[in-house]
Fold:
Amino acid sequence: MNQKIKYVFDHSLLNYHFHDDHPFNQKRVLLTKDLLEEAGQLSDEQIIEPRLASETDISLFHDPSYIHAVKNSLLLTKDELLKFGLGTEDTPVFPKMHEAAAQIVGGTLSAVDAVLKDGSTCAVNFAGGLHHGFKKKASGFCIYNDAAIAIKYIRKNYNLKVLYIDTDAHHGDGVQEAFYDDPSVCTFSIHETGRYLFPGTGSVNERGIKEGHGYSFNLPLDAFTQDESFIANYETALREIADFFKPDILITQNGADSHFHDPLTHLCASMAIYEKIPEIALDISKTYCHGKWIALGGGGYDIWRVVPRAWAQIWNVMKDGKPMQGELPLSWIEKWQEESPVTLPTFWHDEYELFPIIPRKKAIEEKNNFTLQNLLKYTKVKRS
Structure:
């Protein structure tokens, strides 16, 4: 059992709220914490409060003109907002947006310091993982890119090689671009192909530039990919990449939107992948990083049936080395069922009869394997 793990939480992290009808809903962060507490998996001693990130912290990645725009968003014209990707349907402005976004950044930096300064082995900030933010532009529900800022912070203050792993159904474009020319940061994103899904990037041929060429990896999966193909391709690729790069620390972005219940994507995985993803990360962190691993949240738009279970399993694996099995705590179900618009699950696993039947399953698996082989040839070229 690993007691040297920390869980970043404070109710201020829930202030990142665009409007009541927006699909990005941070109530999932509270639901996850409550699920772990009801399951007896999270104690007060393991929780740390996030600090508020300073402008100096945020400017490690973001341009000062963009930070200024975020801080003054309610005073800007529509044209001025659009210049910075603000005021759109995806990223509308809201009061105290800068403070809410800076709190999330501070939460991720608190997780970093818990591991690299205070002696913890692993830490989580499930409010973070806002991977679409760019240097001068908001995108895809993301204002400040806490993952990119954290990696810059690690490079500046601790000089470690960082392996960033992104399992969100959407390509981790903002983090990839931030380190596209940096050989000290390796990025790996497994996601639904951009053919039908935002942001439309993340092909296997996006490899980095200049000194960073060969340190960006993408594994785009065909729409309707299910568990077996996801897990096999993910594990094979990640183990090869980790052995090639040999990182000092892992940062994982754990979007929970590849599930068949998710309303915004077209992948068809079950809870099985959300058990395997952290198990592989834990093993790699122990093999190369003395266990140093920081896990963030990300996407995930079925906030009742999917995200709490998926994120809770990350913590369960960090804590016990394995995911939880069997029934969910009845107390959690009874507490939240009246508020939930859907019937809450009763087990950590999905019930088999809910799994969608995909007629093209074999063809999808063959296509994904072909993409994997294209990715793997790059690690071989880089080694030679």
Summary: Residues 31 and 99 are 22 Å apart (CA to CA).
